[in-house]
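I hope you will forgive my troubling you with a question about protein structure. Could you please explain, in whatever detail you think fit, how the structure tokens follow from the sequence? Thank you for your consideration; the sequence and its tokens are set out here.
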Amino acid sequence: MKAGIWIAGGICIGFGALFMMGAFGPTGFGLGSEDEIVPAALSYKSYGYDASLDLRPTSSGMFGIPLILVGLVLMVYANAGAWKDTNNEY
């Protein structure tokens, strides 16, 4: 049972990382320009590095961040009592 939770946590973290990298659309974060979020290269081209303070999560980021957090919680839960399975060998 713990192996399944551990694997599910790893899958969540993996998919969350892919969403943040932009494998399924835009990257996880973009720079805000008025009411839209644009890629960093376009924003830097128009506004220079002063636009760096307008960093916002994109739709992929809003999905990727919770996936990473859920994956971390699942993996911590699965590994929290792992020392009990060692039969005091160490």
